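2 proteins. here.
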Amino acid sequence: MFMSVQKKVLVVDDQEGIRRLLYETCVLLGYDAVTAPSGLEAIKLPKLDEFKAALIDMKMPGLNGIETMNRLQSLYPGLQVALMTGYGEMYPAEEETVNLASCNIIRKPFDLDEIKKFLEIVFR
């Protein structure tokens, strides 16, 4: 008997509308998506080791996107992250962290094709 490999995506954004849009997009593309409204809520989720991809908003109250990414990747090193930002430029320290982490950046407002491409690469 074959077990199907679930394609699980974590979506972390403090804006409900964006969370919902990304959730629905992931589901329509055939992925199993789980959402969290904050970085703190995300790291409390059970079975995070089953996730291979995460879409994380850069600017959130509490833990920001970089802090959330760092905590998640320290626990689950195989997790591939795309940080989403609506800000034109990042602070130099943020940019350096992103470069060292080799994560993807998706600029808001984003094209859903960017999300699709990121997920296709991760789940290839």
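next one coming up
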Amino acid sequence: MEPLTSRANPRLRHAARLRTGRYRRKSGEFLVDGWRETGRALNAGIELVELFVEAGRFESSRASLPAWVSAVQKEQKLTLVASGVFEKVAYGERNEGVVALFATPSRELQSLRLPAIPLLLIADQIEKPGNLGAILRSCDAFGVDAVLCSDCATDLFHPNVIRASLGTVFQLPVVAATGPEVRAFLAEQKIGCLAARVDATQTLWQAEMTNPIALVVGAEADGLGKDWDSQGVTIPMSGIADSFNVSVAAALLACEARRQRGA
């Protein structure tokens, strides 16, 4: 298999443009960096379009490559890229010699399949991809049934979301929607809300989380807006800081909910 040797190759140029959110939305495709994350996307059934592998690393580590690489090669979706050219599609300092191009899956609120007593997390107006990814990683660890991204400023398949989530964004049911759409869905499903607020009087240890519930955490700078006028809960703090990072708050709430539910 001859590797691609030109940075001007149309497929490489297309892949490189997927680093921008606007082009990802327009094309309906996104990139995944790293062997672990690519494997998790494949295990989740997301459609692989093309797998770019740095030619030198492919030859030197052929014996230790994941088993699924052979299947990708048989499907003729594996493309080798010359080492000096691979940087065209690689992301930042993390370069494992593999970048996968996937079709963006369709994820809608009405397609969610929830258990009888669901535990959801609402991430409202989150701006930083790394924070959203960390939230997803914690929600996966604590068995949250789904994450609803309400009016988030970052897209679900931003490279930093994928990286910070360790690929759990592919396995965990995650849906992006507007605030009104999310609130209408919760009302329709008869799921109550428990909103994290620094000025709430009820602590997370006092709150009831064994019923159908959506835990709500807000934007990094301003917290939750008035649209989330629901029962509030606070996380006690004893230091000089006046709030937690939103991903930490989400992890603490999800952990307590899982404890109450007998994890």
